[in-house]
Design a protein that fits this description.
With 286 residues, the chain is α+β, with helices and mostly antiparallel strands. It has 9 helices and 8 strands. Pfam families: HNH.
Length: 286
């Protein structure tokens, strides 16, 4: 079973979160006792810390991050971190002082703490809808310990792009709003042209930074200038008018570009390059 706890970035919550991670214990007040009683040894817990709206999307929904279940698609943006842990001691009650601001007697202990990631795009584009709903509910109920229904293993909290998740289709649709924003920045014609010319001036070719394919080398003049640009810093979407610099873009082939966006959260150029090189090594042993 996987439980979700949303932690806000209010000063006392932030401080309590750090203390909880250090002492490997979490607690709630009497009013939330029923939300924690079923937490059992061996269960997994995901602490989701501080969601913020992307300024590049414009004004946030009214009352964000408190949005209704019917508007789950609006519970999106960037979370500062997702921390995973395994429950080592089932629900118990204790009066021992742990947190300085108040008493949280209803508790569970945990270990095997790991960071799923920091500064992560969040929402139903990237994570299982049941996981997002659990985070939303916890956020709207001041950090209630919430079960992520239908999710039993960690790998199920994220989603994988479907075969029909074509980028041109995404650009022209209302779905996947964060990906649409990201792609629109990658496809700015003037910027892409400058990036390609800059690379040609330096290297004399447009070679994919992941798999090293050069379409001119393969197709001759037909392949001249054929390459795509990938924005290496998608988190720039947190700002509404942040200027994209040439060094923010990577030259990639269409296949590698699709692979970068295939996993949720998106892969980095370096991570995908390592996957590609490791796969080549495994396929061609000496």
């Amino acid at each position: 079973m996987i439980w979700v706890i949303y932690v806000s970035d209010k000063p006392h919550s932030k401080k309590n979160f750090v203390i909880g991670l250090e002492q490997k214990v979490w607690g709630v007040k009497e009013s939330k006792k029923e939300t924690i009683e079923k937490v059992s040894e061996g269960d997994l817990v995901a602490f989701v810390y501080a969601i913020s709206w992307l300024k590049a999307e414009g004004p946030p929904p009214k009352g964000f991050s408190r949005v209704s279940k019917d508007d789950l698609e609006n519970f999106r943006g960037v979370v500062q971190s997702i921390t995973l842990a395994k429950v080592s001691k089932s629900y118990y009650s204790s009066e021992e002082k742990v947190w300085p601001d108040d008493d949280y007697p209803h508790r569970f202990s945990f270990d095997n703490v790991s960071t799923f990631g920091k500064n992560i795009f969040f929402g139903t584009e990237f994570f299982n809808a049941d996981f997002v709903e659990a985070v939303r509910y916890s956020a709207c109920t001041q950090g209630s310990v919430t079960q992520a229904s239908s999710i039993h293993i960690v790998t199920d909290i994220t989603v994988v792009s479907g075969e029909d998740d074509d980028e041109d289709t995404v650009i022209g649709s209302e779905g996947r709003p964060i990906l649409r924003l990201h792609l629109s920045r990658e496809r700015a014609p003037a910027l892409v042209k400058k990036k390609k010319q800059s690379v040609l001036d330096k290297t004399g070719k447009l070679e994919c930074e992941i798999c090293s394919v050069d379409f001119r080398e393969i197709y001759g003049e037909l392949g001249r200038g054929f390459a795509e640009c990938h924005h290496k810093n998608p988190l720039s979407l947190r700002e509404d008018n942040q200027e994209t610099k040439l060094e923010d873009l990577a030259i990639v082939c269409a296949n590698c570009h699709r692979m970068l966006h295939r996993r949720r959260p998106w892969l980095t150029v370096d991570v995908l390059k390592n996957i590609y090189e490791n796969q080549r090594t495994d396929s061609n042993p000496k």
